[in-house]
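Board notes, transcribed. Complex of a protein with PBG.
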Amino acid sequence: MRRLVRENRLSADDLILPMFVKSSGEDEPIEAMPGISRKNPKRTAAEAAKAYKSGIPAVILFGIPDDKDAQGSASWRDDGVVQTAVREIKAAAPEMIVITDVCLCEYTDHGHCGVITNGEVDNDATLELLAKQALSFLRAGADVVAPSDMMDGRIGFIRSEMDRAGFSDRVIMAYSAKYASAFYGPFREAAGSAPEFGDRKGYQMDPVNAREALREVELDIEEGADIVMVKPALAFMDVIQRVRQITDLPLAAFNVSGEYAMVKAAAKAEMIDEKQIVMEILTGLKRAGADMILTYHAMDAVKWMGEI
Ligand code: PBG
Ligand code: ZN
């Protein structure tokens, strides 16, 4: 009877596995994210192929280059870490959907998501660089670009550059409602992308606002987003639900690094039942209205799906 009346189901089809790509060498475990490591492009492809076999349809890649500079120029080199990983994944698992995170913070020496002019993040100068990066990922074979920088106007700018370059059939997943959140802490350790000075409050959203999130989503849709996202997920489930009500576009929720780290830490201390908690979180995000979930629990979740 419960099967008949169940309102929401989690399936492997809903999940996107985030991965950190470095240039070479052995896997490097990320201390704050037990079970997750930085991997070279070949190892990334092997993991992606494994994920695809277990039913996960998509991965999202974050690049950790060897060399960072003020502009983040390592991000638009056609032999960059992400570009190389995209090609390796497409060779190992051609059907795997490859999403690439588009932002400068993983590639800049100052750690900000945009370029700095007179001590401030320069919104308009950043747009050109983001588009350069996105086009380079697309040339490597990425199916989806996911701008996470939160500069104003970037979706429209990248969309028109994609059209001009002949990539009008590729997809933009917009990090539309992205909050300035402490839940990104472990990610910044993983990517070495914590800002050197100041914070991201000038471009990411204030966590106390919800109506503003709806405006951000509306703007990204007008500018040409194909998928919109709310991030983080757990403290913002009301936002997920409200975004669901204003658009019929596919909606993604990012179950971020800090949310993952909390579950892992509590599970390690034997304070919670990890399996039950993870499934409750992921099904809860679907109930709130998410069509797809970016989650570091993806590999575990598919394993546990048959069991709960
Ligand atoms: C890059 C980016 C971040 C995340 C996704 N893309 C970090 C940030 O904005 O500081 C966070 C993902 C996570 O915490 O799991 N802008
Ligand atoms: Zn960034």
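The mean pLDDT is 97. The chain has one domain: 2-304.
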